[in-house]
Amino acid sequence: MAVVTMKSLLESGVHFGHQVKRWDPRMKKFIFAERNGIHIIDLQKTIQAIKDAYDAVRKVISSGKSVLFVGTKKQAQQAIQKEAERCGMFFVNNRWLGGMLTNFTTIKKSLLRLKKLEKMEVDGTFENLTKKEIAALGKERTKLQKNLGGIKEMKELPGILFIIDTRMEAIAVAEAQRMGIPIVAVVDTNCNPDGIDYPIPGNDDAIRAITLFTQIIANAVIEADNEVGLRIIENLEAEDEDLEEMMTDASIKEEDQEIDIASYASVDQAEQKEPVVVAQEEEEDHLPVDIDKAYEEE
Known about the structure:
2 domains; Rossmann fold; 13% strand; three-stranded antiparallel beta sheet; Helix Hairpins
């Protein structure tokens, strides 16, 4: 049975949004508070959204359809591929090619070309070609594998999409909406949740947060036949920990290093600068806030 705890959400930095000045007003209903120039996401609503998305994915899998994992930003590429492969689903983690859903007939021709090139490489066809021809075909295969490798075995449109960062994957969102395919997406405070069937409010920039969300969806695929479903543990283990304080404070553990949120908030989204760290003797791996949270260029 899949288990999600409030503690894991907090430790992954799921509740940290963008700077206040970069918010999308349509995300107001998912925002808990504002702390030193940064919006804090309401994890109670995040948990409910996770439940809804989990159940939706299970229903799609039970009906015999597939899930397409989409996340092309650097922070998401590895998690998207790893979890999609773990649950045996399809993924796009390098580049979304226009028409992947709306013009799937043409995309299937490219998939057949990719399979043909792979077959030529192992059946001895390359032995009768010149080095220049082999190099050209190898270059073509590499390019196709990079962009389409994750959907190589996809024979029909997916039953549902799971998307990290709807702003970056705007084309994928538009195509899914046009084709009537449901969307599960992680929406940060700078995103528009309208038009997303199952929006999950949360941090879409931190690697740990992205990995956590992707694992939950992959578990939904794996446990589609499990009658129990998802279990949420909302109580924090430590007696002296106050949920509200943790949601509005960067310091999650007393012994961990603390990050100066004021400095963190002043980071421009187009720049990838590391936040100011208050010097302590602990290692960086134990930081309560994911230092991988870097904002992509808009």
